[in-house]
Amino acid sequence: MKKIKVLQINKLYYPDIGGIERTVQHIAEGLKESVDMSVLVCQPKGRGVKEIIHGVPVQRCGSFGTLFSVPISLSLLWELRRKAKGQDILQFHAPFPLGDLACLLSGYHGKVVIYWHSDVVKQKKLMVLYRPIMERFLKRADAIIVGAEGVSKGSSYLKPYQNKCVTIPFAVNQKIEQEGKEYLEHAKPNLEKCARFLFVGRLVYYKGVDVLLQAFSTVPNAELVIIGSGELEETLKIYVKDQGMIDRVHFLGKVEEESLYRAFSECDVFVLPSVAKSEAFGLVQLEAMAYGKPVINTNLASGVPEVSLDGITGLTVEPGNKQELSNAMQWLVDHPEERCKMGIAARQRLESNYTMEVMMNRMMRLYECLLGDDSNSC
Question: Are residues 32 and 96 in the same domain?
């Protein structure tokens, strides 16, 4: 039987890693045996290159650099037009304005899937120019994938296209799922009234790490580990120094995979303090849940609070509210038994809803439906 041919298009790909890049990689590697899968992305800057990464053909188009978080790559327009021929499905990961434009200029007449990760939130002025292109792209799409119902319902742009939206929850990769399982088989719960909190992510405005540090400053008997880098890194480090928290707050920067796994195993609570719906899901929540860790997240109009549930697998606070966040952190310090119970529930929720097997099965059903006789019912 002939395999379905799928080309995924995104800004970047592994080893450039963010939540979107991890999802593109999960799909590519998870379905490479079932479909004829390839990936088209850009270089952050520099000449183009073709590679095979973990068995997946990846073409990185040359780029002049990045402007407003978008690689400036004229070759992407040409390469997509060339590579689209013969593909059954083009799957774009949004937001990626250059990808929208490339699709509309490609002359491609097959099926188009948009994986909608989040709205464009920060560059509101640029939306005046971009929105007409985006609306044409959304009309062109045959299906729009969201990771949670809250993503489509909370979007400022997807309401007219609800009939095209398909919910396919994200997943942790199988290695993290297995590493977490092995850790839990031997882990001893921390029943002391102290806790190590962990944040993993880019140090940019919408992640809310400034709010996290303000909240943490009033929580005794606790440590905070911050993994990641970004434009706010130096500002955040200065704040920690000025507040006399150097001994309690540890910036690890970017770390290798094994160090990341160790950080998940060594923490007691994971914190996702995001303040804007640019955080559409928070894939890193799942990675913490794989290790049986409770999560403090924020009540964004996105999929974030659907992942870890308030009072069951962690606590949910209002975004930007440092007092609520501080109270939640303190409660988890003071209630170690409840903290451990939430962690167990977090792992159980992961196994029921957010595994690679669940995600890949739903993705394949969508592909087969789109290429079937009744694609309007997908």
Answer: yes
